[in-house]
Amino acid sequence: MNLDNKRILVTGGNGFLGKHVVEELKCNGAGVISAPLSVHYNLIKENDILEMLYESKPDIVIHLAASVGGIGANQKNPGKFFYDNAIMGIQLMEQARINNVEKFVTIGTVCCYPKYTRLPFKEKDLWNGYPEETNAAYGLAKKMLLVQGQAYKKQYDFNSIFLIPVNLYGLGDNFDLDTSHVIPAIIKKVHHAIHNKEGSITIWGDGTATREFIYVKDAAEAIIMATKGYDKGDPVNIGTGDDISIKELVLIISDIMGFEGFINWDHTKPNGQPKRKLDVTRAKEEFNFEATTTLINGLKETIDWYQGNKDLWN
């Protein structure tokens, strides 16, 4: 699909990933890009969705808007995360179909996968068990949008695709410890310890869990490549294919930032899913995507960005 002269609506376009997706769309010559603020359109309300679609008249919808957070936020808000994410996506896709949108791109989550999935996670494994309990409500809400998209493709020939990005990090990430994910949380804790001359930091879990991370600019590139070149109903993993333990991650961030203090592991807090590592073969085969940013380089850029914008998160 050529994006020239296409009208593209990006929900969540002012968020962490959304800003990078909008920038990538501009670089790809997209015609008219709409990235409305949530204060103008509450996607939980069907009337707001109708008004948004009427105003933007999109040819393509890239649905990034979501209620998200780390393990703690998911534990506190499972009902909200389920309802918000399910109702937003279900209503938006239905109205996009009714309004003859040419293509609907749903951004899912690695939390869709079962808690105990063999490494590397293959897309065919999505239905082989229940998600990790701390974020199951969020993961299942997102997975229902995969079901909806496949059902709409079968019944209505609606062009809907479903992408599954692994954990994101990078410039513009959320560093609020109440809602942040692991990399920004570690960076902020290390910075705080250095700034206040503290001898230790405390990290949730025991450090044995493994995670795969993709730099946000790479993820944005993958989303646009899929928007242009992928039209099948099968879900697609978006990642690097490389994983790292949380313990190793903390040590790397500490080394980059010059922190030599003690790492205190809080065993009373959950690890989350034991292991995460994606099989990224399908993305390469279907639309030739491969992540190019190494974890070390991505972490350095993220740390530099945080240190230049830390006042936003104090």
Structure commentary:
There is one protein chain. The chain is of the alpha/beta class. It has a domain at 7-172 and 212-242 and 275-292: Rossmann fold (3-Layer(aba) Sandwich), CATH 3.40.50.720. The chain has helices at 16-27, 46-56, 71-76, 78-98, 136-156, 182-195, 216-229, 246-257, 281-287, 295-309; strands spanning 7-11, 32-34, 60-63, 103-107, 160-165, 167-169, 200-204, 210-211, 213-215, 236-238, 244-245, 262-266. A six-stranded parallel β-sheet has the order 2-1-3-4-5-10, sandwiched between helices. A two-stranded parallel ribbon has the order 6-9. Strands 7-12 form a two-stranded parallel ribbon. It starts with 6 loop residues before the first strand and ends in a 5-residue tail after the last helix.
List the helices and strands and how they pair.
Elements: E1 7-11, H1 16-27, E2 32-34, H2 46-56, E3 60-63, H3 71-76, H4 78-98, E4 103-107, H5 136-156, E5 160-165, E6 167-169, H6 182-195, E7 200-204, E8 210-211, E9 213-215, H7 216-229, E10 236-238, E11 244-245, H8 246-257, E12 262-266, H9 281-287, H10 295-309
Parallel strand pairs: 1-2, 1-3, 3-4, 4-5, 5-10, 6-9, 7-12
Antiparallel strand pairs: 8-11
Helix pairs in contact: 1-7, 2-4, 4-5, 6-8, 6-10, 8-10
Radius of gyration: 19 Å
Strand order of the largest sheet: 2-1-3-4-5-10
- CATH class label of the domain at 7-172 and 212-242 and 275-292: Alpha Beta
| Gross CATH architecture of the domain at 7-172 and 212-242 and 275-292 | 3-Layer(aba) Sandwich
Strand tally, please? 12
In the predicted model, the low-confidence regions spanning at least 5 consecutive residues are none
Mean pLDDT across residues: 95
Note the gap between the termini: 43 Å
Counting helices, strands and paired strands, the structural category is alpha/beta
Q: Mind telling me the CATH superfamily name of the domain at 7-172 and 212-242 and 275-292? A: NAD(P)-binding Rossmann-like Domain
Percent of residues in beta strands = 5-15%
Q: Classify the helix fraction into a percent range.
A: 40-55%
- What series of H and E elements makes up the topology? EHEHEHHEHEEHEEEHEEHEHH
